[in-house]
Amino acid sequence: MIGGVRIEHNQGVVAHSDGDVVLHALADALLGATGLGDIGHFFPENDSAWADADSNILLAEVVTKVKRRGWHCINADCTVLCESPRIAPHGAQMREVIGLTLGCSRESVGVKATTMERMGFLGRGEGIGALAVVLLGGA
């Protein structure tokens, strides 16, 4: 799962939840922007309730917490760090899923990828990463 979309690939991730790095990065960006901490605080690895959890559900829980603090998402931008799979063919679908969960339009969500030019563990295909930023507005 990347950006809320299942992408067929010969590799997967080892994670407590479904390991969706994009949705986790978005959750952390929202939590950080509102001073609520990070995703591990709310959904710890040692809590079996979140084992194999759908990251979209986790993100929706975070959005609810953010809204309770009087904030809403205006826009979000995500960059996936990987050599493969190719993200561009799935970008529109990811933007749709993310926009629905964040409560903003698909046009307000950016999803893109960059390679690491075969450098480091990401460049060797040993992992995947994601960075996210969000712009919040008051309720």
Written overview of the protein:
The protein has 139 residues and is of the alpha+beta class. It has one domain: 2-Layer Sandwich (60s Ribosomal Protein L30, Chain: A), CATH 3.30.1330.50. Helix content is 34%, strand content 19%. A 3-stranded mixed sheet has the order 2-1-3, with helices on one face. Helix 1 (21-33) runs parallel beside helix 3 (55-68). The model has no long low-confidence stretch (mean pLDDT 91).
What is the structure about, briefly put?
The chain is α+β, with helices and mostly antiparallel strands and 139 residues long. It has helices at residues 21-33, 39-42, 55-68, 91-102, 120-123, and strands at residues 71-81, 109-114, 129-138. It has a single domain, classed as 60s Ribosomal Protein L30, Chain: A, CATH 3.30.1330.
